[in-house]
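TA notes, week 10

Several of you asked for a full example with nothing omitted. So below is the full record: C-alpha coordinates for the whole chain, then the designed sequence directly under it. When grading your own attempts, check the secondary structure regions first.
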Protein backbone atom coordinates (compact mmCIF):
# COMPACT_ATOMS: atom_id res chain seq x y z
CA UNK A 1 0.00 0.00 0.00
CA UNK A 2 1.57 3.31 -1.10
CA UNK A 3 2.44 6.16 1.20
CA UNK A 4 0.36 8.61 -0.95
CA UNK A 5 -2.75 6.40 -0.65
CA UNK A 6 -2.47 6.30 3.15
CA UNK A 7 -2.05 10.10 3.29
CA UNK A 8 -5.12 10.49 1.02
CA UNK A 9 -7.25 8.29 3.29
CA UNK A 10 -6.13 10.19 6.41
CA UNK A 11 -7.02 13.51 4.76
CA UNK A 12 -10.53 12.19 3.93
CA UNK A 13 -11.05 11.00 7.51
CA UNK A 14 -9.92 14.38 8.88
CA UNK A 15 -12.26 16.24 6.48
CA UNK A 16 -15.25 14.05 7.42
CA UNK A 17 -14.48 14.07 11.16
CA UNK A 18 -17.45 15.20 13.23
CA UNK A 19 -17.58 15.68 16.98
CA UNK A 20 -20.72 14.45 18.70
CA UNK A 21 -21.70 16.37 21.80
CA UNK A 22 -23.69 14.68 24.51
CA UNK A 23 -24.88 16.52 27.58
CA UNK A 24 -25.94 14.75 30.75
CA UNK A 25 -27.24 16.23 33.96
CA UNK A 26 -25.30 14.57 36.74
CA UNK A 27 -25.09 14.82 40.50
CA UNK A 28 -23.09 13.21 43.29
CA UNK A 29 -24.25 10.99 46.15
CA UNK A 30 -23.58 12.73 49.48
CA UNK A 31 -24.90 10.00 51.75
CA UNK A 32 -26.95 6.82 51.40
CA UNK A 33 -28.77 4.56 53.86
CA UNK A 34 -32.04 2.65 54.39
CA UNK A 35 -33.08 3.00 50.75
CA UNK A 36 -32.73 6.79 50.69
CA UNK A 37 -29.91 8.89 49.13
CA UNK A 38 -28.98 12.57 49.55
CA UNK A 39 -27.60 14.00 46.29
CA UNK A 40 -25.87 17.30 45.43
CA UNK A 41 -26.13 18.86 41.95
CA UNK A 42 -29.08 17.98 39.65
CA UNK A 43 -30.51 21.50 40.10
CA UNK A 44 -32.98 20.98 37.20
CA UNK A 45 -34.48 17.73 38.50
CA UNK A 46 -38.31 17.42 38.73
CA UNK A 47 -40.36 15.97 41.58
CA UNK A 48 -40.96 12.22 41.05
CA UNK A 49 -38.35 12.14 38.25
CA UNK A 50 -36.45 8.88 37.74
CA UNK A 51 -32.73 9.01 38.53
CA UNK A 52 -30.12 6.52 37.36
CA UNK A 53 -27.56 5.27 39.89
CA UNK A 54 -24.53 3.07 39.04
CA UNK A 55 -25.14 -0.66 38.23
CA UNK A 56 -28.50 0.12 36.58
CA UNK A 57 -30.31 0.89 39.85
CA UNK A 58 -33.03 3.54 39.63
CA UNK A 59 -34.34 6.03 42.15
CA UNK A 60 -37.04 8.69 42.40
CA UNK A 61 -36.54 12.33 43.45
CA UNK A 62 -38.79 13.14 46.44
CA UNK A 63 -37.30 16.09 48.39
CA UNK A 64 -36.21 19.11 46.34
CA UNK A 65 -34.19 21.32 48.69
CA UNK A 66 -31.96 24.33 48.06
CA UNK A 67 -28.56 22.64 48.27
CA UNK A 68 -29.45 18.98 47.74
CA UNK A 69 -32.19 16.57 46.78
CA UNK A 70 -33.51 13.51 48.65
CA UNK A 71 -34.29 10.44 46.55
CA UNK A 72 -35.63 6.99 47.35
CA UNK A 73 -33.77 4.08 45.75
CA UNK A 74 -35.85 1.44 43.95
CA UNK A 75 -34.10 -1.83 44.59
CA UNK A 76 -30.81 -2.95 46.11
CA UNK A 77 -29.00 0.05 47.59
CA UNK A 78 -26.02 -1.72 49.19
CA UNK A 79 -23.85 -1.18 46.07
CA UNK A 80 -24.37 2.61 46.11
CA UNK A 81 -21.79 4.63 48.03
CA UNK A 82 -20.80 8.23 48.75
CA UNK A 83 -19.26 9.98 45.72
CA UNK A 84 -21.14 7.88 43.12
CA UNK A 85 -22.43 9.70 40.06
CA UNK A 86 -26.22 10.03 39.57
CA UNK A 87 -27.84 10.91 36.22
CA UNK A 88 -31.27 12.46 35.70
CA UNK A 89 -33.37 10.70 33.05
CA UNK A 90 -35.93 13.43 32.32
CA UNK A 91 -38.71 10.82 32.75
CA UNK A 92 -41.38 10.55 35.43
CA UNK A 93 -41.52 7.12 37.10
CA UNK A 94 -43.51 4.83 34.77
CA UNK A 95 -44.15 1.10 34.51
CA UNK A 96 -44.68 -1.16 31.47
CA UNK A 97 -48.33 -2.09 30.84
CA UNK A 98 -50.06 -4.50 28.49
CA UNK A 99 -52.34 -7.52 28.05
CA UNK A 100 -49.38 -9.88 28.54
CA UNK A 101 -49.23 -8.87 32.23
CA UNK A 102 -52.42 -10.89 32.87
CA UNK A 103 -51.75 -14.13 34.72
CA UNK A 104 -48.34 -12.97 35.96
CA UNK A 105 -46.75 -12.01 39.27
CA UNK A 106 -44.72 -8.79 38.93
CA UNK A 107 -42.84 -6.41 41.20
CA UNK A 108 -43.83 -2.72 41.46
CA UNK A 109 -41.44 -1.85 38.59
CA UNK A 110 -43.34 -4.15 36.22
CA UNK A 111 -40.65 -6.87 36.18
CA UNK A 112 -41.75 -10.52 36.28
CA UNK A 113 -40.89 -12.38 39.51
CA UNK A 114 -42.78 -15.63 38.87
CA UNK A 115 -39.98 -17.39 36.99
CA UNK A 116 -41.97 -17.54 33.74
CA UNK A 117 -39.62 -15.29 31.73
CA UNK A 118 -39.51 -11.57 31.02
CA UNK A 119 -42.59 -9.57 30.01
CA UNK A 120 -42.00 -7.57 26.82
CA UNK A 121 -43.88 -4.27 26.58
CA UNK A 122 -43.46 -1.10 24.55
CA UNK A 123 -46.19 0.87 26.34
CA UNK A 124 -45.58 2.70 29.62
CA UNK A 125 -47.95 4.43 32.04
CA UNK A 126 -46.86 6.91 34.75
CA UNK A 127 -47.49 5.51 38.23
CA UNK A 128 -48.76 8.90 39.45
CA UNK A 129 -51.64 10.46 37.53
CA UNK A 130 -54.34 13.03 38.19
CA UNK A 131 -57.69 11.32 38.93
CA UNK A 132 -60.52 11.56 36.35
CA UNK A 133 -62.59 14.75 36.68
CA UNK A 134 -66.30 15.08 37.42
CA UNK A 135 -67.24 15.54 33.74
CA UNK A 136 -65.64 12.24 32.73
CA UNK A 137 -67.39 10.22 35.46
CA UNK A 138 -70.74 8.51 35.66
CA UNK A 139 -72.68 7.48 38.75
CA UNK A 140 -72.17 3.88 39.88
CA UNK A 141 -75.03 1.73 38.57
CA UNK A 142 -73.69 -1.75 37.85
CA UNK A 143 -72.91 -4.33 40.56
CA UNK A 144 -69.66 -6.15 41.26
CA UNK A 145 -70.95 -9.57 42.26
CA UNK A 146 -68.76 -10.59 45.21
CA UNK A 147 -70.37 -14.02 45.60
CA UNK A 148 -70.61 -13.43 49.36
CA UNK A 149 -74.26 -13.43 50.48
CA UNK A 150 -73.86 -10.98 53.37
CA UNK A 151 -72.06 -8.40 51.18
CA UNK A 152 -74.16 -8.70 48.00
CA UNK A 153 -77.36 -8.48 50.05
CA UNK A 154 -76.57 -5.77 52.61
CA UNK A 155 -73.38 -3.91 51.58
CA UNK A 156 -73.45 -4.02 47.75
CA UNK A 157 -70.36 -2.98 45.80
CA UNK A 158 -70.73 -1.26 42.42
CA UNK A 159 -68.35 -0.94 39.47
CA UNK A 160 -66.35 2.23 40.05
CA UNK A 161 -66.86 2.24 43.82
CA UNK A 162 -64.21 2.31 46.57
CA UNK A 163 -65.25 -0.01 49.39
CA UNK A 164 -62.92 -0.36 52.37
CA UNK A 165 -62.37 -3.75 54.04
CA UNK A 166 -61.36 -3.02 57.63
CA UNK A 167 -60.71 -5.15 60.70
CA UNK A 168 -58.09 -6.56 63.07
CA UNK A 169 -55.45 -9.01 61.91
CA UNK A 170 -56.65 -12.55 61.23
CA UNK A 171 -60.34 -11.66 60.79
CA UNK A 172 -60.61 -12.77 57.14
CA UNK A 173 -59.95 -9.52 55.22
CA UNK A 174 -57.74 -11.11 52.55
CA UNK A 175 -60.09 -14.12 52.40
CA UNK A 176 -62.97 -11.84 51.34
CA UNK A 177 -60.79 -10.14 48.71
CA UNK A 178 -59.66 -13.48 47.22
CA UNK A 179 -63.26 -14.78 47.17
CA UNK A 180 -64.31 -11.66 45.23
CA UNK A 181 -61.53 -12.31 42.66
CA UNK A 182 -62.59 -15.98 42.29
CA UNK A 183 -66.21 -14.90 41.74
CA UNK A 184 -65.27 -12.65 38.79
CA UNK A 185 -64.87 -15.69 36.52
CA UNK A 186 -66.99 -15.03 33.43
CA UNK A 187 -67.98 -11.54 34.66
CA UNK A 188 -65.67 -9.72 32.18
CA UNK A 189 -63.57 -8.16 34.93
CA UNK A 190 -59.78 -7.88 35.13
CA UNK A 191 -58.49 -8.25 38.71
CA UNK A 192 -55.30 -6.75 40.14
CA UNK A 193 -54.15 -7.87 43.58
CA UNK A 194 -51.55 -5.54 45.10
CA UNK A 195 -49.68 -7.18 47.99
CA UNK A 196 -47.93 -4.50 50.10
CA UNK A 197 -45.31 -5.78 52.54
CA UNK A 198 -46.85 -9.28 52.56
CA UNK A 199 -44.95 -12.49 53.23
CA UNK A 200 -43.91 -14.19 50.00
CA UNK A 201 -45.13 -17.55 51.38
CA UNK A 202 -48.65 -16.12 51.84
CA UNK A 203 -48.71 -14.80 48.26
CA UNK A 204 -47.47 -18.17 46.94
CA UNK A 205 -50.48 -19.82 48.65
CA UNK A 206 -52.85 -17.22 47.18
CA UNK A 207 -51.42 -17.70 43.65
CA UNK A 208 -51.78 -21.50 43.99
CA UNK A 209 -55.42 -21.12 45.09
CA UNK A 210 -56.23 -18.70 42.25
CA UNK A 211 -54.61 -21.04 39.71
CA UNK A 212 -56.63 -23.98 41.09
CA UNK A 213 -59.87 -22.02 40.66
CA UNK A 214 -58.86 -20.78 37.17
CA UNK A 215 -58.81 -17.16 38.36
CA UNK A 216 -55.22 -16.34 37.29
CA UNK A 217 -56.53 -16.18 33.69
CA UNK A 218 -57.83 -12.66 34.41
CA UNK A 219 -55.64 -11.64 37.41
CA UNK A 220 -52.37 -9.72 37.81
CA UNK A 221 -50.48 -9.83 41.12
CA UNK A 222 -48.23 -6.90 42.04
CA UNK A 223 -45.98 -7.98 44.90
CA UNK A 224 -43.88 -5.82 47.20
CA UNK A 225 -42.73 -8.53 49.59
CA UNK A 226 -41.88 -8.24 53.26
CA UNK A 227 -38.19 -8.73 52.37
CA UNK A 228 -38.25 -5.99 49.69
CA UNK A 229 -37.19 -2.39 50.46
CA UNK A 230 -39.81 0.01 51.91
CA UNK A 231 -39.66 1.97 48.64
CA UNK A 232 -41.28 -0.99 46.83
CA UNK A 233 -44.13 -1.04 49.36
CA UNK A 234 -44.57 2.71 48.82
CA UNK A 235 -44.90 2.60 45.00
CA UNK A 236 -46.73 -0.78 44.74
CA UNK A 237 -50.34 0.54 44.94
CA UNK A 238 -49.62 3.32 42.41
CA UNK A 239 -48.09 0.75 40.03
CA UNK A 240 -51.17 -1.47 40.38
CA UNK A 241 -53.43 1.52 39.72
CA UNK A 242 -51.43 2.49 36.59
CA UNK A 243 -51.96 -1.06 35.27
CA UNK A 244 -55.68 -0.75 36.01
CA UNK A 245 -55.86 2.60 34.18
CA UNK A 246 -54.41 0.99 31.04
CA UNK A 247 -57.34 -1.47 30.95
CA UNK A 248 -59.89 1.19 32.01
CA UNK A 249 -58.77 3.38 29.09
CA UNK A 250 -59.60 0.44 26.81
CA UNK A 251 -63.19 0.47 28.16
CA UNK A 252 -62.76 -2.55 30.43
CA UNK A 253 -63.86 -3.06 34.04
CA UNK A 254 -61.06 -3.53 36.59
CA UNK A 255 -61.09 -4.62 40.24
CA UNK A 256 -58.06 -3.61 42.34
CA UNK A 257 -57.36 -4.91 45.85
CA UNK A 258 -54.78 -3.02 47.93
CA UNK A 259 -53.64 -5.42 50.68
CA UNK A 260 -53.04 -3.44 52.79
CA UNK A 261 -52.83 0.37 53.00
CA UNK A 262 -51.74 0.29 56.67
CA UNK A 263 -48.38 -1.17 55.58
CA UNK A 264 -48.30 1.37 52.73
CA UNK A 265 -48.61 4.23 55.25
CA UNK A 266 -45.88 2.63 57.41
CA UNK A 267 -43.47 2.46 54.46
CA UNK A 268 -44.18 6.11 53.60
CA UNK A 269 -43.62 7.10 57.23
CA UNK A 270 -40.28 5.27 57.21
CA UNK A 271 -39.09 6.99 54.00
CA UNK A 272 -40.32 10.41 55.19
CA UNK A 273 -38.60 10.16 58.57
CA UNK A 274 -35.28 9.17 56.94
CA UNK A 275 -35.70 12.19 54.60
CA UNK A 276 -36.18 14.27 57.78
CA UNK A 277 -39.67 15.45 56.84
CA UNK A 278 -41.43 16.85 59.95
CA UNK A 279 -43.56 14.18 61.69
CA UNK A 280 -47.20 14.79 62.69
CA UNK A 281 -49.82 12.66 64.43
CA UNK A 282 -48.59 9.10 65.19
CA UNK A 283 -45.25 10.19 63.56
CA UNK A 284 -46.83 10.15 60.08
CA UNK A 285 -45.88 13.06 57.79
CA UNK A 286 -48.50 15.78 57.27
CA UNK A 287 -49.44 14.66 53.73
CA UNK A 288 -50.38 11.07 54.62
CA UNK A 289 -54.07 11.81 53.87
CA UNK A 290 -53.08 12.98 50.37
CA UNK A 291 -51.04 9.78 50.00
CA UNK A 292 -54.21 7.68 50.00
CA UNK A 293 -56.70 10.18 48.55
CA UNK A 294 -54.71 10.65 45.33
CA UNK A 295 -54.57 6.87 44.95
CA UNK A 296 -58.22 6.02 45.69
CA UNK A 297 -59.67 8.95 43.71
CA UNK A 298 -58.26 7.31 40.57
CA UNK A 299 -60.98 4.65 40.92
CA UNK A 300 -63.95 5.72 38.82
CA UNK A 301 -66.76 4.70 36.50
CA UNK A 302 -66.15 6.59 33.25
CA UNK A 303 -69.09 7.65 31.09
CA UNK A 304 -69.65 6.38 27.53
CA UNK A 305 -67.91 9.40 25.94
CA UNK A 306 -64.68 8.41 27.69
CA UNK A 307 -64.85 4.66 26.97
CA UNK A 308 -67.17 3.52 29.77
CA UNK A 309 -64.43 1.63 31.64
CA UNK A 310 -64.19 1.45 35.43
CA UNK A 311 -61.80 0.81 38.30
CA UNK A 312 -63.33 -0.60 41.49
CA UNK A 313 -61.03 -0.43 44.51
CA UNK A 314 -61.17 -2.64 47.60
CA UNK A 315 -58.52 -1.17 49.92
CA UNK A 316 -57.77 -3.13 53.09
CA UNK A 317 -56.87 -1.50 56.43
CA UNK A 318 -55.71 -3.38 59.52
CA UNK A 319 -56.92 -1.98 62.86
CA UNK A 320 -55.31 -2.46 66.25
CA UNK A 321 -57.75 -3.94 68.82
CA UNK A 322 -60.77 -2.81 66.75
CA UNK A 323 -59.84 0.88 66.95
CA UNK A 324 -61.42 2.45 63.85
CA UNK A 325 -60.78 5.94 65.24
CA UNK A 326 -56.98 5.70 64.78
CA UNK A 327 -55.33 8.06 62.28
CA UNK A 328 -55.02 5.93 59.12
CA UNK A 329 -58.40 4.10 59.49
CA UNK A 330 -60.34 7.40 59.89
CA UNK A 331 -58.47 8.90 56.93
CA UNK A 332 -59.31 6.02 54.59
CA UNK A 333 -62.91 5.71 55.86
CA UNK A 334 -63.44 9.37 54.91
CA UNK A 335 -62.04 8.81 51.38
CA UNK A 336 -63.96 5.62 50.51
CA UNK A 337 -67.65 5.04 49.61
CA UNK A 338 -68.33 2.75 52.55
CA UNK A 339 -66.68 0.03 54.59
CA UNK A 340 -66.97 -3.68 55.29
CA UNK A 341 -66.11 -3.96 58.99
CA UNK A 342 -64.93 -7.37 60.20
CA UNK A 343 -65.04 -8.03 63.94
CA UNK A 344 -62.76 -10.46 65.75
CA UNK A 345 -65.48 -11.33 68.36
CA UNK A 346 -67.81 -12.54 65.59
CA UNK A 347 -64.94 -14.39 63.92
CA UNK A 348 -64.17 -16.31 67.12
CA UNK A 349 -67.89 -17.15 67.51
CA UNK A 350 -67.68 -18.93 64.15
CA UNK A 351 -69.65 -16.29 62.23
CA UNK A 352 -67.62 -16.08 59.02
CA UNK A 353 -67.40 -13.73 57.18
CA UNK A 354 -67.26 -11.89 60.54
CA UNK A 355 -69.30 -8.97 59.25
CA UNK A 356 -70.52 -6.33 61.70
CA UNK A 357 -73.71 -5.24 59.91
CA UNK A 358 -74.19 -2.20 62.16
CA UNK A 359 -70.82 -0.61 61.38
CA UNK A 360 -70.60 -1.75 57.74
CA UNK A 361 -72.14 0.46 55.09
CA UNK A 362 -72.18 1.01 51.35
CA UNK A 363 -72.69 4.66 50.41
CA UNK A 364 -73.61 3.64 46.86
CA UNK A 365 -76.26 1.36 48.33
CA UNK A 366 -78.98 -0.29 46.31
CA UNK A 367 -77.96 1.61 43.13
CA UNK A 368 -75.45 -1.22 42.69
CA UNK A 369 -77.94 -4.06 43.21
CA UNK A 370 -80.13 -6.02 40.83
CA UNK A 371 -83.89 -5.61 41.40
CA UNK A 372 -84.15 -9.25 42.46
CA UNK A 373 -81.51 -8.85 45.17
CA UNK A 374 -83.02 -5.53 46.28
CA UNK A 375 -86.39 -7.22 46.82
CA UNK A 376 -85.08 -10.03 49.05
CA UNK A 377 -82.38 -7.99 50.84
CA UNK A 378 -84.58 -5.09 51.98
CA UNK A 379 -86.16 -7.21 54.71
CA UNK A 380 -82.89 -8.95 55.58
CA UNK A 381 -81.01 -5.98 57.04
CA UNK A 382 -84.06 -4.98 59.11
CA UNK A 383 -84.51 -8.53 60.44
CA UNK A 384 -80.85 -8.71 61.41
CA UNK A 385 -80.86 -5.26 63.07
CA UNK A 386 -83.96 -6.16 65.12
CA UNK A 387 -82.38 -9.49 66.08
CA UNK A 388 -79.21 -7.75 67.35
CA UNK A 389 -81.43 -5.46 69.47
CA UNK A 390 -83.46 -8.31 70.91
CA UNK A 391 -80.57 -10.79 71.27
CA UNK A 392 -79.68 -9.44 74.71
CA UNK A 393 -83.16 -10.46 75.96
CA UNK A 394 -82.93 -13.98 74.51
CA UNK A 395 -81.71 -15.35 77.86
CA UNK A 396 -85.10 -14.42 79.41
CA UNK A 397 -86.87 -16.78 77.00
CA UNK A 398 -89.89 -17.42 79.23
CA UNK A 399 -90.76 -13.71 79.53
CA UNK A 400 -90.84 -12.97 75.80
CA UNK A 401 -94.04 -12.53 73.86
CA UNK A 402 -94.71 -14.65 70.78
CA UNK A 403 -93.78 -11.91 68.26
CA UNK A 404 -90.41 -11.21 69.89
CA UNK A 405 -89.62 -14.91 70.15
CA UNK A 406 -90.42 -15.30 66.44
CA UNK A 407 -88.08 -12.41 65.53
CA UNK A 408 -85.25 -13.92 67.59
CA UNK A 409 -85.74 -17.32 65.95
CA UNK A 410 -85.75 -15.69 62.46
CA UNK A 411 -82.58 -13.76 63.42
CA UNK A 412 -80.77 -16.94 64.45
CA UNK A 413 -81.58 -18.50 61.08
CA UNK A 414 -80.47 -15.34 59.25
CA UNK A 415 -77.08 -15.45 61.00
CA UNK A 416 -76.69 -19.13 60.02
CA UNK A 417 -77.64 -18.53 56.37
CA UNK A 418 -75.18 -15.63 56.04
CA UNK A 419 -72.27 -17.84 57.13
CA UNK A 420 -70.17 -18.86 54.15
CA UNK A 421 -67.07 -20.98 53.67
CA UNK A 422 -63.87 -19.55 52.19
CA UNK A 423 -63.28 -20.06 48.44
CA UNK A 424 -66.99 -20.83 47.96
CA UNK A 425 -68.56 -17.75 46.33
CA UNK A 426 -72.19 -18.13 45.25
CA UNK A 427 -73.94 -16.98 42.07
CA UNK A 428 -76.43 -14.10 42.35
CA UNK A 429 -79.44 -16.21 41.32
CA UNK A 430 -78.65 -18.90 43.93
CA UNK A 431 -78.27 -16.18 46.60
CA UNK A 432 -81.67 -14.70 45.66
CA UNK A 433 -83.36 -18.12 45.90
CA UNK A 434 -81.94 -18.94 49.34
CA UNK A 435 -82.56 -15.44 50.76
CA UNK A 436 -86.14 -15.50 49.43
CA UNK A 437 -86.74 -18.76 51.30
CA UNK A 438 -85.30 -17.20 54.47
CA UNK A 439 -87.11 -13.83 54.44
CA UNK A 440 -90.47 -15.37 53.55
CA UNK A 441 -90.53 -17.78 56.48
CA UNK A 442 -89.81 -21.06 54.67
CA UNK A 443 -86.96 -21.79 57.09
CA UNK A 444 -88.82 -20.95 60.30
CA UNK A 445 -89.65 -24.62 60.93
CA UNK A 446 -86.06 -25.85 60.26
CA UNK A 447 -83.89 -26.36 63.35
CA UNK A 448 -81.07 -23.78 63.64
CA UNK A 449 -78.44 -26.54 63.88
CA UNK A 450 -79.67 -28.03 60.57
CA UNK A 451 -79.82 -24.76 58.58
CA UNK A 452 -76.39 -25.18 56.92
CA UNK A 453 -77.18 -28.73 55.81
CA UNK A 454 -80.65 -27.62 54.58
CA UNK A 455 -79.04 -24.82 52.53
CA UNK A 456 -76.39 -27.08 50.98
CA UNK A 457 -79.03 -29.68 49.95
CA UNK A 458 -81.35 -26.94 48.64
CA UNK A 459 -78.53 -25.54 46.46
CA UNK A 460 -77.91 -29.00 45.01
CA UNK A 461 -81.66 -29.41 44.38
CA UNK A 462 -81.80 -26.01 42.64
CA UNK A 463 -78.83 -26.84 40.38
CA UNK A 464 -80.23 -30.26 39.43
CA UNK A 465 -84.03 -29.86 39.36
CA UNK A 466 -84.78 -26.12 39.18
CA UNK A 467 -82.34 -24.80 36.58
CA UNK A 468 -85.17 -23.00 34.76
CA UNK A 469 -85.97 -20.73 37.74
CA UNK A 470 -82.29 -19.87 38.28
CA UNK A 471 -81.89 -19.03 34.58
CA UNK A 472 -84.98 -16.78 34.72
CA UNK A 473 -83.61 -14.87 37.74
CA UNK A 474 -80.15 -14.55 36.10
CA UNK A 475 -81.65 -13.24 32.81
CA UNK A 476 -84.40 -10.95 34.13
CA UNK A 477 -82.47 -9.83 37.26
CA UNK A 478 -85.81 -9.15 38.98
CA UNK A 479 -88.52 -11.10 40.77
CA UNK A 480 -91.67 -10.85 38.67
CA UNK A 481 -94.92 -12.46 39.89
CA UNK A 482 -94.32 -15.36 37.50
CA UNK A 483 -90.78 -16.00 38.83
CA UNK A 484 -91.94 -15.67 42.47
CA UNK A 485 -94.71 -18.25 41.86
CA UNK A 486 -92.20 -20.67 40.28
CA UNK A 487 -89.65 -20.09 43.05
CA UNK A 488 -92.21 -20.71 45.80
CA UNK A 489 -93.31 -23.92 44.05
CA UNK A 490 -89.66 -25.10 43.90
CA UNK A 491 -89.15 -24.37 47.63
CA UNK A 492 -92.42 -26.17 48.59
CA UNK A 493 -91.61 -29.17 46.37
CA UNK A 494 -88.19 -29.41 48.00
CA UNK A 495 -89.72 -29.29 51.50
CA UNK A 496 -92.22 -32.01 50.60
CA UNK A 497 -89.30 -34.06 49.24
CA UNK A 498 -87.46 -33.67 52.58
CA UNK A 499 -90.46 -34.78 54.63
Amino acid sequence: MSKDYIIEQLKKQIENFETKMQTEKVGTVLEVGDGVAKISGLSDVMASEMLEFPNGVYGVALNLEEGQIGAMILGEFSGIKEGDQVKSTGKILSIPVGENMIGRVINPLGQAIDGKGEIASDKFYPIEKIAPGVITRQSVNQPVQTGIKAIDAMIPVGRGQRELIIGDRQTGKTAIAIDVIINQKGQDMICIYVAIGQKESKIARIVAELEKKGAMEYTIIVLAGASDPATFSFIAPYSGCALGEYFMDKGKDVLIIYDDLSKHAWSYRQISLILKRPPGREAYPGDVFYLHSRLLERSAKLNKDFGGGSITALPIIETQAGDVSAYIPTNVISITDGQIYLESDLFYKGIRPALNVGLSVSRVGSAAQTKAMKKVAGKLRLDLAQFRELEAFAQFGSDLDENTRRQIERGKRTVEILKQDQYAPMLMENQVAILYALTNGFLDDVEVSKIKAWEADFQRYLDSSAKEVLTLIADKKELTEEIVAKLEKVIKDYKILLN
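The longest helix spans residues 371-391. Use that as a sanity check on your answer.
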